[in-house]
Every structure is written in structure tokens, then in C-alpha cells.
Amino acid sequence: MLKATFDIIPDSIASESMQNNLLLMEVSDQIFCYVLYNRDSQRFLGFRQYNLDFIPGKSPLEALSEVLSGDEHLQHPYTEAYLVYHYTDSNLLPEKYFTIDLNKPVTEIVYGNAQKGLLLNDKVDGWDVYNIYRIPRDVHSLLQTKFTTGKYWHYNTLLLSGVDKHSIEGDMIKVVIAADKFAVVAFKGQQLQIAQSYHYQTPEDVSFQLLALALQFGIDQETVNLKVSGLMDEQSILYQELLKYFGQLEWEQLPDETSSEEGFRNFPSHYFSPLLKMALCV
Q1: Please, are residues 2 and 56 in contact by the beta-carbon 8 Å criterion?
Q2: Which band of pLDDT confidence, cut at 50, 70 and 90, is reported for residue 14?
């Protein structure tokens, strides 16, 4: 059985008692993780993350299949099970122009047609846009077989739908850092500019892309509110790189009304806040 890279599920929680809670899973080409949340108590009960690309001789799909069959907390029919796909082939289209026939041409004009994945779309709540995205067909089939009643979205859909348009003051950029990619949602005033994910290899790749987006949308890098979350801390090279160019960095926090098991307190809350906040808006 593949070993979890993050495991914040208390031993005292019995697997059988979890099925009445909410299960929210994120899957990408390298990562599978999930959060367990109790709506009644507004309490986060656990989190696990697996790296899918570090097993010699096994493909990420084979590693994912092993996790789904071997993780004890994934063996029950959850009342609420949600899948969040975090793949970079994603485009926003205004609702007034959207038709399902545009899924393929919109995706292929931006990302090409070398990848023959499954094309899906989400209506983004509160923003009058659709998110058109492409995911691996075999991954979707595996997860749909495992969670037959599970609902699914793209990562950028929930990242954007979790933002209240009327709460935005001035310009704002939300950045979520993962091991292999980062997600960006940018606003100029209350106007959405972009919601996209990018692969990166060096800290400079992240700062360069953010600076390019700021220039493209006329956003002042010194005054924009840069809200940061994900696997980064103030000692990291990436954080120091962002400080060189942006004047206002702020860690993304969880709502005060939520609580969490003690294991979460061993890590900065912004490590997990993106996925945890998604559990609050599904």
C-alpha cells in the first residue's frame, strides 16, 4: 500500500464512523488527497495526501487504483463524496457565449489535440462563466466506478466560486502553491481576469508568470493584495522570491467558525486552506 505523504487522521477516529461525513478528494497527475469534514459541527476531521508519481514501475493511474482500494477510509459509501480535478487544461468562457459544442474547439485551440482526454464543463456559481476543462478519461472512469454517486468539479471552478465578488476590495490575486503547479485567480476591482493553473519547476517560474499576469491586466504589483496558500512558508525560497516583486502578501486563512482536529495544528493553516475551503462550498 502506498504510504501517505501527509496523514492527519487521528487514530481514535474509526473508519466506519466516517461515512456520514463529507468526503472531498483532489486528484491531479501527481497528487491524490482528500479531506473529511463534518457539516453539523463545522469541523475538519482529517486529511491525507499521496504522491502518485514516485513508485518505480507503476504509473500514476496504477498508484491511484492502489490508494483507492487500500485506504481504509475510502472503503465506505459516503453520503456526500466530491471529486476535484486539478489538471491545467482549463478555460473560462462567459455564460452568454457558452454551448457544449465549444468544449472541444476552445480546449484544442489553447492546448492542442495531442492529449485525447475527456472534455467536461462546470458552471461557476456567482460569476456568470463556464469552466471548460480536459481530464484523463481513465482517471475519471476509475473514480466514477469507485464513487458511483460522487459529484465532480474542476479545481479552478471551486477556487473561484469560493470568492464572494462583493467582498473584493481593490485588486486581488489568489495563488495556491502545489508541488508541481500553482493556481491563480486574479481580479481587477471586482472584475474577474483569469482563473488558471500552471506547471512550474523553479521559484522564478512562479514570480515571472505572476508578474506577466499583473502587466497583462494592468494590476499594480506593489498595491495588489496577493493572497497566498498551499505548500509554502516564510522560510521558503519561493516566498522570498514573491517578496521581491509584490508589496502585499497575505496568508489565506480558514473561516473563524470552523474548527479542526488537533493534528491540523501541527502545520500552518494555509497548507490545507484551499481544499478545506472547497469543502465548505460544495
Answers
A1: no
A2: low
